[in-house]
Amino acid sequence: MNYRQLSKEELKEVLAQEKKRYQELVEKNLSYDMTRGKPGSNQLDLSNDLLGEKYIGNAKAASGTECRNYGVLDGIPEIKKLMADMMGTKPENVIVGGNSSLNMMFDTLMRFMVFGTSADSTPWGKLDKVKFICPVPGYDRHFLICEKLGIEMIPVELQEDGPDMEKVLELVKDPAVKGMWSIPKYSNPSGVVYSDEKICQLASMECAAPDFTIMWDDAYTVHYLGDAPAKQKNLIEACAEAGNPNRAYVFGSTSKITFPGSGIAVLASSVENIKYSLSYITAQTIGNDKLNQLRHANFLKDYDGIVAHMEKHAEILRPKFNAVLEVLEEELGGLGILEWTKPQGGYFVSINTLDGCATKVVAMANACGVKFTPAGATFPYRKDPRDRNIRIAPTLPPLEELYEAIRVLCVCIKICSAEKLLEA
Amino acid sequence: MNYRQLSKEELKEVLAQEKKRYQELVEKNLSYDMTRGKPGSNQLDLSNDLLGEKYIGNAKAASGTECRNYGVLDGIPEIKKLMADMMGTKPENVIVGGNSSLNMMFDTLMRFMVFGTSADSTPWGKLDKVKFICPVPGYDRHFLICEKLGIEMIPVELQEDGPDMEKVLELVKDPAVKGMWSIPKYSNPSGVVYSDEKICQLASMECAAPDFTIMWDDAYTVHYLGDAPAKQKNLIEACAEAGNPNRAYVFGSTSKITFPGSGIAVLASSVENIKYSLSYITAQTIGNDKLNQLRHANFLKDYDGIVAHMEKHAEILRPKFNAVLEVLEEELGGLGILEWTKPQGGYFVSINTLDGCATKVVAMANACGVKFTPAGATFPYRKDPRDRNIRIAPTLPPLEELYEAIRVLCVCIKICSAEKLLEA
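Structure tokens for the assembled complex are given below, as produced in the milestone run.
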């Protein structure tokens, strides 16, 4: 039963039926929050050993550094090694930060605004116009940083294997286009894994701006749902090979590995960029929380330790993602009114409704007690030109709530779609 | 025996004697580091209960917030209350930050550079010239921030009760003078406690720049060595009373209360400034480490808890400060070649040698295996115009080392002073 092939009468019937279901759901007085990609509490429990003394030992790093006292700007050696391994690079290519990779991204762009990307470049704050390429749908917090900094965002379609490169190659001819955002693996919200081909294109493409920078938010680099983290060409390497060694700023964290907000963040880049960044970070802080670095290094141990830990997360998350896909298929399969992703990792399922329906669907679900990320949030300036994308974050709610929440969403989609088709 | 009253012959004799002592000290192959104001390991031990689960409870804030997950931009309520109490202000006047107040100071000035001090002010980065008043001697890391940001620093003498206000009042007539640094209590390095009179003057003085900002680094607000923390007029209150409510940005942390680098930092200001700051911080991070906030709130409990904890620090530190003063008095009392402070709190003893001697003294001590903070470090651009100020940090070394290190310093001072007087 494809909605698009139904007669007006049939659509009206469907609409009446679904409105009745909606009314029944409203009467349940649900109160579910599906807005953010937060781990569920059983995921948090996986890292509870971090709460105690177990991994603190004598509070000294392997190098002998007293972790309870001042010092060590870029991280104790064992955490640099661990985070470098996770990001697929070397310890000399990383700065271990505080608890938030978002903070490191913001600070990086603030440095570019005030100091430029290198000692001999013009600070972006001195320029009339700075533009950024934003693959869409994307992460609202990336877009918010640009908005605050007055960086003009140009949306580019995120295809199944990465951004629309034809568009990107055209845009980087403009010297005001200084950079782009990317979530290269299990992207937020679509779950896209950039192909090596597109990664190499991004690394090698000719850009009019010599200080063109790729803000590579590899937030989900080990957050797989399949058998293992997807293998992917390392951007820092690709940029070095292409003769653009300073183009890549790569970010990651343990936020969704251990405890969000109490984890460890990392910035990875060329050795030259790392030195340049540290030349300012040394004026910003004496160092980050080494006790937490020590805990994390001892708890996660090495790359294999991280992957083994992520498998435990995957075991918890697979049934949740399956629940979403199951209900979507059951309710909406073949109706021709919704497209959805089937991610192999990450934290989200991304759906596209019929054009012009997303805002209404989210509002209806909200009125029924189920909060989703506001429609438009996945686009720069919160404006989805086709008003169709909604981000589903299945990780936080318990499984039973999740089934019910997605059921609500499906009913809302059916109602809005039927109404939309009746209008046509 | 005042060196200044000695004949050349007598000075030569003194010099020979002290050179002999120096040689003996060199042969000891000492290796002491007196460069930074770090707590000693027995001070760190006072907070070892923070390393375990003891103060984590069920990892939930009193409000029920799950501290292991994302959220809460400005700190959980109990840590906001605690830090507000410590800073003598209210929870609505504070933002609880990460592990470093220096980081909050740097970020604040970065925001002023890029966004200005308020929605309707000009970003400092758009101005031809920004100047800052810097009471001297002062804290090298404040000066480094200004240097990186290209803010021109104007030194003003720090007198016994605060900065030379005559000079300050003259300087703030220049609209390019946008702010000043201050360490109002037990200042680094002189141990000066600003008088209420000068605090009120700073709050009420007429400034040509409407966005004149006082960067008030109250790093040692509870770090007393006497009977109790010195009472002092609160700058935020004083500014509000004087009709300049947005002039004060106040900073503090638990770095030298619990663990440096693994503590809690705070920014305090007017409610308007707090809102303005948060409007950008919300793009910078989702929130700081709430588990560490919870630990600290439960461990320190309240203002009285903090003071009781600081008394334990004071018990450890008093003998160290006394050792410094004892050796200085014994070696140099009445010689007319050194002035030194007798601080009632804080982390330093500040000394002034004869003009032109500080660099040589530090180099000589260094050659003898005892490292002091480089001469000049306490001045903007590392230039002490009289080359006389040296910062002594007595907290880190064990007591016996401290006696020996200060002994070395005194011998070096005697040698350099005698040589200087012989040249005259």
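Chain B has a mean pLDDT of 97. Chain B touches chain A through 55 residues (CB under 8 Å). Further analysis is deferred to the final report.
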